[in-house]
Amino acid sequence: GYLGTAPSMGITIEADDFIIAIYDRVGGCLDGEVWEVLIDPPITELPDLLVCAGDTVNVTMPGEWRSITWTSRNREFEGVINENMVSYVPQGETDLITIQAESFRGCQYTTNFEVVVSQLTGAVAATEYTVGEGESVTLEASGGRRYLWLPAENLSNPNSPTPVATPDISTEYTVFIFNDAGCSEEFKVYVEVVQVAFAPDVFSPNGDGRNERFRVYDLDGPVDMTFTIFDRAGNRVFESSRLSEVAAQGWDGTNNGTPVPAGTYFWKINGTYADGRKILINGDTKGALQLIR
């Protein structure tokens, strides 16, 4: 369109165009010039990035450029810088990447974008647990949006931060803790399943052939043990450090060959297994039993 008759003017060009100037020369001759105006495309504004800690950031600047300079607010680039692309591992919680680009027509552009490193805050309450055979324990993780426990067998809910584990054998669990950005970290939790000795709380040495002796069951492999039974007055009526007497033979309800009266008696065990664990019966080192005649 028509621009005017001034000898010079400033105009805003929004697209590639031609400018034609016609003027009178001295002597009345007409002359003119034609300029082709080419517009550089605008530089692409890159979006901010949310990445996981330790992730490699790969960023490409679209378009063709004579030169590109990438700079980081936090550090010198140690990654690969290859023309339109940069590859690096961000440091700190946030970083600002500035891009200075020169087009093939000599135009200078500057743009930047922020890199936010999503922080991981996961944790577990404990890394080791000990349970008896058939017993359960509650595992506990925190600091995440989602959770995944593996292996999932014998867990009440593998996606819960606090699943109940009832393993048949000693098991190492891995929990993956995911934050809002989908970043994850993992922790190992070991649950040791140990042998649990068991003793009944009643027996009846009355000569009917049933339940005649008080025995401790599943008591295998102690290296040091003393098992003692007392009456209500604190008198010792049975004591042994031999596994065969405690687990196989058992107590027959006598003291030095004389039957003791019916009533409540108390047992106590001191000892350890070969791996150093304390011997427990019914989960404790002491307990009570009823003798019925």
Structural class: mainly beta
Looking at the chains present, what oligomeric state does this protein adopt? single chain
Report how far the terminal alpha carbons are from each other: 121 Å
Estimated share of beta-strand residues: 35-45%
Global mean pLDDT: 90
SS elements, strand count = 24
The unreliable regions are: none
Give the proportion of residues in helices. under 10%
Q: Given the C-alpha coordinates, what overall shape results? A: rod-shaped
The biggest beta sheet, please? 5 strands, mixed
The strands making up the biggest β-sheet line up spatially as 18-24-23-19-20
Offer a concise description of the structure:
This protein is mostly beta strands. The chain has one helix and 24 strands. Strand 6 and strand 7 (85-88) form a beta hairpin.
Structural commentary:
- With about 290 residues, this protein is mostly beta strands.
- About 0% of the residues lie in helices and about 45% in strands.
- The chain contains one helix and 24 strands.
- The protein has a five-stranded mixed β-sheet with strand order 18-24-23-19-20.
- A hairpin with a 5-residue loop joins strand 1 and strand 2 (about 30-35).
- The relative contact order is 0.10.
